[in-house]
């Protein structure tokens, strides 16, 4: 079992060119119906997720925004209504191309500083190597893959509607994969297409 402290501690946030601090672990809500987002986004925030990722195309972005405002005003119900200031929550929305120009001009929307991320590595069923690593590090296969994403410099956006898995997916900070295992996982099967920071002066809207 590997319990040693990581040699290279990965900061929990990354500074964007805009100056905003983006939490490196995000909570994604793709395919979660709006009415269900009320609960799960609240539960994710209660479990220390501080980055919520949605888009107008998911049709749940208004609910997610409502939850963020709610916890900033009334607190998190499952945390004895502890207030979570709005400034501590990073909220990602993605506008459809035809709305980007008109909405971005003259509103409080901040221009993006990162190109859209692509999926995390899939969690394959029956990958013996992955289970080998899970045994070696005493972690779950999901934790191995999300930790790998972090060590690759990506910002994993993890989606789960399950409270236990929300906690499980958070358990990726205080340990690390050895370099050889990071390399070994770098196969076509797992390799994500990572987002990248927008260069200074680069057009934001294409
Ligand atoms: N996929 C894309 O093309 C795309 C594009 C842009 C942005 N995003 C963002 O990225 C987020 C994640 O997308 P994705 O495609 O990676 O996820 P996904 O495949 O849509 O969902 C993750 C799946 O993994 C399961 N899961 C989560 N944690 C697990 C664990 N610890 N053990 C076993 N299974 C687990 C979830 O089930 P349960 O919910 O039942 O746990 C769910 O079925 C999206 O919600 C969205 O915000 C995705």
UniProtKB/TrEMBL annotation:
GO terms for molecular function: oxidoreductase activity. Keywords: Oxidoreductase. Residues 127-186 form the NADP-dependent oxidoreductase domain. The keyword Cytoplasm does not apply. The keyword Ion transport does not apply. InterPro entries: AKR (IPR020471), Aldo/ket_reductase_CS (IPR018170), NAD(P)_OxRdtase_dom_sf (IPR036812), NADP_OxRdtase_dom (IPR023210). This is NADP-dependent oxidoreductase domain-containing protein.
